[in-house]
Amino acid sequence: MDLMEAIKGRRSIRKYKPDPIPEEALQKIMEAVQWSPSWANTQCWEVIVVKEPKVKSELASTLIKTNPALSSMIEAPIVIVLCGKKGISGFKKGEAATVKGDWLMFDTGIAMQTLCLTAHSLGLGTVVVGLFDHKRVEEILGVSQNAEVVAMTPLGYPAVEGTTPKRKDFSEFVFYDRYPGK
Ligand SMILES: Cc1cc2nc3c(=O)[nH]c(=O)nc-3n(C[C@H](O)[C@H](O)[C@H](O)COP(=O)(O)O)c2cc1C
To answer: Tens digits of per-residue pLDDT, 36-46?
Structure first.
């Protein structure tokens, strides 16, 4: 698949078929995460692949009822939970190297996009889920104190095509030489 085709064609998928995911496809997706860029190659990401229906239901229960991704967490055969190890990305000798502090959100964000694009290229759907009770998910999965849960995504074969939300025009976010207004 052409890169631009993958970037523009990937949609958030919120309805899934129950069909299982071939192990090779899952391995490819993990390989894509493995090769994502990160601060000084620190690779702070950690991935929990959840297949057990009971655990998927528990994870789904951490979303508020109005979250449109709620049912997809149960429908999809797999839920991927993306965590980040704290105090590594953006740090030099234990000290934050920039005013931004920990860059784990940034590095795991890149990894998530790489994961979603790779899944899409394999005919699989994803939807990044960020609105849930992170502390409860950490308890359910027994995530270590040194790490935090960032986002989750169902992973499976799409049962419907996703709708395409409108994007901003370049004029609204691309500026030349200075920030607008200066
Ligand atoms: C950080 C982040 C958090 C998100 N959280 C949710 C969520 O909790 N529930 C949901 O249904 N979609 C969620 N989304 C998906 C967005 O709504 C979606 O990406 C956006 O509307 C654009 O649609 P598209 O992905 O089809 O291009 C999230 C996306 C991102 C990047």
So the answer is: 999 999 999 99
Q: What count of residues does the chain have?
A: 182
Three-class secondary structure of residue 50 per DSSP: strand
Q: pLDDT under 50 in the chain at which residues?
A: none
User: What does DSSP say about strands 78-85 and 45-50: parallel, antiparallel, or unpaired?
Assistant: antiparallel
Cα angle, residue 47 at apex, residues 41 and 51 outer, rounded to 5°: 160
Interval between CA 76 and ligand 1 midpoint (Å):
16
List, chain by chain if needed, residues with CB within 6 Å of any ligand 1 atom.
Answer: 11-12, 67-69, 127-131, 151, 162, 165
pLDDT of residue 182: 67
Q: What is the position in ligand 1's atom list of the atom closest to the CA of 165?
A: 23
Of 156, 84, 90, 147, which Cα lies nearest the Cα of 122? 156
Atom of ligand 1 nearest to the CA of 131: 8
Q: What pLDDT does residue 178 have? A: 95
pLDDT of residue 32: 98
